[in-house]
Design brief:
Two copies of one chain form a homodimer. Chain A has two domains: 82 residues, Winged helix-like DNA-binding domain superfamily/Winged helix DNA-binding domain (Arc Repressor Mutant, subunit A), CATH 1.10.10.10; 58 residues, no CATH class. Helices cover 47% and strands 8% of the residues of chain A. Chain A contains eight helices and two strands. Chain A has a two-stranded antiparallel ribbon with strand order 1-2. In chain A, helix 1 packs antiparallel against helix 4. At the A-B interface, helix 1, helix 2, helix 3, strand 2 and helix 5 of A face helix 1, helix 2, helix 3, strand 2 and helix 5 of B. Chain A binds a DNA duplex (30 and 30 nucleotides) through helix 4. Chains A, B: This is Bacterial regulatory protein, arsR family. Chains A, B: Pfam families: HTH_5 (PF01022). Chains A, B: It comes from Caproicibacter fermentans. Chains A, B: Keywords: DNA-binding, Transcription, Transcription regulation.
Chain lengths: 145, 145
DNA sequence: AATTTAATTTAGCAATGGCTAAATTAAATC
DNA sequence: GATTTAATTTAGCCATTGCTAAATTAAATT
């Protein structure tokens, strides 16, 4: 499952409406077009995007196309986003992020709020380090207030 | 929270990378630009999109901008999508969806698979109903195989 | 086999979006 | 208060996207 493809697919108002409609009922393309005030071609193109993202499976039944929502993909996406949301800030790893060795001992993780933050990294040494475009990834700590 | 705005914000590869980076660490704009191989302006624009969606809050700390991910918005989005994914197909409501009264008695909900589907709605009466462009929203049942 | 019809695809157009480079803003240092 | 510097905004460019209308495809009916 290509998460980006799924996100792009549902981050369009019209396609989200289509998903919502198909989650509730079974509609033929023309009925969708009518509900959405769009041409059938436009709807067909949207359906293709949703199909390509794996969100729909289509099957011809008699004269009519029959689309089914693949709810698993939505469940997976929700889980994926939830995982992202629950991600904790890592401990500072200066060597990986490009801190100067002289600054490393001051690096701390800053979680939420500003309580744990100590002065470091953006001190005078850093500011004088170059022309500004060689600015390295720093260790992400900043001045306490 | 505007769900659509949030979805559009994170359905871009670069912005998703920014989110991921900021969820792990605290980066200044220039460090992000360097990591992503982009101009600072481009990064700033992406940050604005994420801010406008409510995904980030920015605060100036000394020389540097300090961005925090609003994890609540991500949690809410995940829950939202999960709700969507768990949506059950409603029972057929022909009067609402435009079925002809003669067809209503045959309408059924089709959940997953095709087992519960009966012939209805798309029968001969329906096909002869008009020039095709007056095609009403129908009750979404279709022929069994 | 010919016809009818639902759905898809294509061509062309307008709007949107992301990028760079340059100008501007705002805040910290001197 | 002048200078320095990080971040934002703006202007202009190109690629992408969504739309309509028309052409095409594919399947069911006759």
């Amino acid at each position: 499952m290509d998460r980006m493809l799924v996100l792009k697919a549902i981050s369009d108002e019209t396609r989200m409406k289509i998903m919502s409609l198909l989650l509730h009922h079974n509609y033929c393309v023309r009925a969708l077009a009518r509900k959405l005030n769009l041409s059938e071609g436009a709807v067909s193109q949207h359906l293709k995007v949703l199909r390509d993202a794996g969100l729909l499976t289509g099957e011809k039944k008699g004269y009519f196309m029959h689309y089914d929502v693949n709810r698993e993909v939505l469940h997976a996406l929700a889980a994926d986003i939830e995982t992202l949301a629950s991600m904790e800030r890592e401990l500072c790893t200066p060597e990986e992020s490009g801190c100067h060795s002289s600054e490393q001992e001051y690096c701390h993780t800053q979680k939420h709020g500003n309580e744990e933050v100590r002065e470091s990294c953006h001190g005078a040494d850093f500011a004088k380090g170059g022309n500004g475009h060689e600015h390295p990834g720093h260790c992400h700590c900043h001045k306490s207030e």
